[in-house]
Amino acid sequence: xxxxxxxxxxxxxxxxxxxxxxxxxxxxxxxxxxxxxxxxxxxxxxxxxxxxxxxxxxxxxxxxxxxxxxxxxxxxxxxxxxxxxxxxxxxxxxxxxxxxxxxxxxxxxxxxxxxxxxxxxxxxxxxxxxxxxxxxxxxxxxxxxxxxxxxxxxxxxxxxxxxxxxxxxxxxxxxxxxxxxxxxxxxxxxxxxxxxxxxxxxxxxxxxxxxxxxxxxxxxxxxxxxxxxxxxxxxxxxxxxxxxxxxxxxxxxxxxxxxxxxxxxxxxxxxxxxxxxxxxxxxxxxxxxxxxxxxxxxxxxxxxxxxxxxxxxxxxxxxxxxxxxxxxxxxxxxxxxxxxxxxxxxxxxxxxxxxxxxxxxxxxxxxxxxxxxxxxxxxxxxxxxxxxxxxxxxxxxxxxxxxxxxxxxxxxxxxxxxxxxxxxxxxxxxxxxxxxxxxxxxxxxxxxxxxxxxxxxxxxxxxxxxxxxxxxxxxxxxxxxxxxxxxxxxxxxxxxxxxxxxxxxxxxxxxxxxxxxxxxxxxxxxxxxxxxxxxxxxxxxxxxxxxxxxxxxxxxxxxxxxxxxxxxxxxxxxxxx
Amino acid sequence: xxxxxxxxxxxxxxxxxxxxxxxxxxxxxxxxxxxxxxxxxxxxxxxxxxxxxxxxxxxxxxxxxxxxxxxxxxxxxxxxxxxxxxxxxxxxxxxxxxxxxxxxxxxxxxxxxxxxxxxxxxxxxxxxxxxxxxxxxxxxxxxxxxxxxxxxxxxxxxxxxxxxxxxxxxxxxxxxxxxxxxxxxxxxxxxxxxxxxxxxxxxxxxxxxxxxxxxxxxxxxxxxxxxxxxxxxxxxxxxxxxxxxxxxxxxxxxxxxxxxxxxxxxxxxxxxxxxxxxxxxxxxxxxxxxxxxxxxxxxxxxxxxxxxxxxxxxxxxxxxxxxxxxxxxxxxxxxxxxxxxxxxxxxxxxxxxxxxxxxxxxxxxxxxxxxxxxxxxxxxxxxxxxxxxxxxxxxxxxxxxxxxxxxxxxxxxxxxxxxxxxxxxxxxxxxxxxxxxxxxxxxxxxxxxxxxxxxxxxxxxxxxxxxxxxxx
Lengths: 577, 472
Hints:
Helix content of chain A: 25-40%
Helix content of chain B: 40-55%
Radius of gyration of chain B: 25 Å
Number of strands of chain A: 17
Number of helices of chain A: 22
Number of strands of chain B: 14
Shape of chain A: elongated
Strand order of the largest sheet of chain B: 3-2-4-5-1-6
Shape of chain B: globular
Largest sheet of chain B: 6 strands, parallel
Structural class of chain B: alpha/beta
Oligomer: heterodimer
Largest interface: A-B, 19 and 21 residues
Distance between the termini of chain A: 42 Å
Radius of gyration of chain A: 34 Å
Strand content of chain B: 5-15%
């Protein structure tokens, strides 16, 4: 059933302009806060929803400028039959090329037959919905979608509270499940009458004196009230509306008193059943009120894993759990460009990106991303960040920076992944060892796209840099920590065998007991040994985290200036976003 | 009542429907059983046919949501004007300034549009089925269009090859056997003469079906063996005109019954003359009202002969107006040389001659109709003309434009046929009356003859010098 093929928004709230072709399945909008994700959902809802009235105010205009009309245009494809009726909508029917996104003014064999619906709001704040086509405009024709057809295409919104969908209110999902309707008029009216009878004359008994006065006055003034005025239940006071009937559980407790998560989950499930009649769903903050496993269940019930997708869903999230559950072609990054317009990029399904979604979904929710060669770099950044937070500095996480762990291997992979993230509009910094040189062409295309790069001094890996740059006390602490992670015998054996017996662990201790500095050879040797491929001393995220927090951070000020400069550069970048 | 045949039993099908055998009823019955949210599209040829079908559907209590009725040309026109680029039709063609070439162009463009599949999605979304009525009147391009639509919509066509009488002037009609049955295999042939059964004259109905079979096979109609409802007037050469006029005056069977006189379709002047000479009779006008629009083009207030044109028009539409006497009389009245004072009608004519306006022209025409013994025998023409004069006098349209507008308005009116109407097979096809008079059967071919014979439900009067009617 109906799908939104294209969204165009002009001058609506924080969006000056946006043109987007969503997918026909699940569209998960991510992006840093205030990136207008909810505004996009609202725009779709306002343009396509079945509302009799909608109030707009000056604050709905971009920059509060009411002279620039709000214009929300949706191209609707896969139309239900009644919207392709030649007699009703003939001159509004158009053709849409799903591959190129090109709209042709008349339907064509082999193309999706579409309608173009536009909501305009001018300075008078009066919303005006109309179908748009060039030939209708040329003829001066204008019409809206008929109300009965509007109900067919109206999106179902799963807001923060799903309660309205748990009773038979107008627009409730319950009315779209099947053709049954509660027989409200007759049944409710007779119930109301019964209530009146049951209530009877009880009130009169409690209001004897008042009634007495009324009766006396009425009689003396000749107002006919009969022998005695009565106090009865006013039949009009008994509310008779569609919303009066709602879902209850076995013991008669209304389902609206379920927890937020449960009611949202239930309504989403019903939505799935009603997909034929309400094929577009809008979901705010999909994770709201749900534990991770129920969030996954909710995404499943919205058809996240089905092909072809049963619903076209537009949802917003700030949850890495939600991101991790989705494919790259279901995740869309919302960005505000330099020129003030908004762009939406599909994350895509290339291998590199898909593994980032699985491993570091947080990256997609940040503004800036540090692409780390391996767990060590991630540990270093985290540990240092924690150290500085303890020193009352702001965390780089708070500044909207996240990191991606490429997981070792060829250094080129860092730049390839960095480039993919750059193309999605993220600020990207690659942090990579300098012991294995990357392919220059790969680095060039990365930096040409605006990527930043920090690497250690030539030929150095991270451990080399640390052992070569920290003060003697710092290196002492590193050795000390290594002994906590790795057996002393193993370290001693590694040092002896790497130096072919020229230097031993005991030699190193001896030298330090004599208050003598580490020699360059010792520092180089320790760096090399500590990053042994199989038995590296700090080779895990958590060990490096401890190293950075308890050793590197406290010894930063006494470290070699070149190293300090590099680390400063890294953190300045992370905080600059 | 369930229909005799299920029109939707087959994806493609045709019904052969002799005159008066319940063709419209079967459509109504079928629609009454139609379920589903999409309507059935019903196409026919003329606006009058649309009106007649719609009335029958309303009388049969068919829900309006079950069908949409329009003409084939109207449908083609709407398709191409809705999708002008895909049909490659120019805005100029859609204005129908030269209908003779514009309509064929529109039909062809509609066919091309549907054939290319551009509107298949919309067609299938809009309609459940297609029914085409009077299919024998389709020309080959219309047949191609219906065939193209039938690849999208299940389609049933109804018609009667023996009533195909519109194939002239380069308008090549479908051949029932060669074109229609190939594309739309026969579902069946209607064979109950309901029109005559309902009128209490089943024998007449059976005799007409019998005539149809003979004529279809190339045979003649024998007037020596006729049911009692058929009256043969043997024409004698010396009294031929009087006999025919007498036949045209045949009384209806019931007090309010209608009499149709089906004259020679190639001799409109002769039919008009008969109407002028037959008390109570009026002519049936062709839908294009050519005499009105041609009057519209020639009647020019600025020219000195406006009076002559107006008087000639009046003489063609009513009795008691003789152009040869009235025109000199007006001139002498204008010059003041007339000896007798003017009649009221002559006075308004002179007034018009002195100050020619559209309102005075209309006034003069009305005054002429009020003369003693005056009788309007072409009322449709006259009253459309009076309305056109009214429109032109308002100033928004020229008189030629006003006559064209009036013609178009009239096209969509349901046809009001006088109690005694004189027309031809081409003008009266699809209409029925209590009594049918056929004054000149010897001029007709088999199909025209069959159409003429089947117009009366209770009585049929045939003028013929020979006892056998031999089709031309």
